Fold this protein.
Amino acid sequence: MAQTPHEWLLQADYDLETAECMLQAGRNIYAVFMVHLAVEKALKGVFHKKFGEMPPKTHNLIYLLQRIGEIPLESLGAFIVELDQASIATRYPEELASMATMYPVDRVLRIIAEGREVLLWVKKIF
């Protein structure tokens, strides 16, 4: 687990870049998963900085957002809710073929772009 708040952000950036690589490789489900991981780590970095302690061991983005007490723009908040709901399905897909159809390239490009916006917002409040 990251030992400093800044390390969380470094890893979030790395994971977002990995999402782009997964998309290039045609691994769209993993691209979405990596965006979720990037946003999760970014929020955990804010938590770590704000409270001076390790963040909770959770993948729930909404819970992390509530815990840090920061309110993003409505569009970013809606995206975080959408990404949080995608987490379980991309982490443990019931059927790979049907899951793949849920994340065509254009949707994944949007998810990556919005994930990038969340990371920019986090860096502003950091």
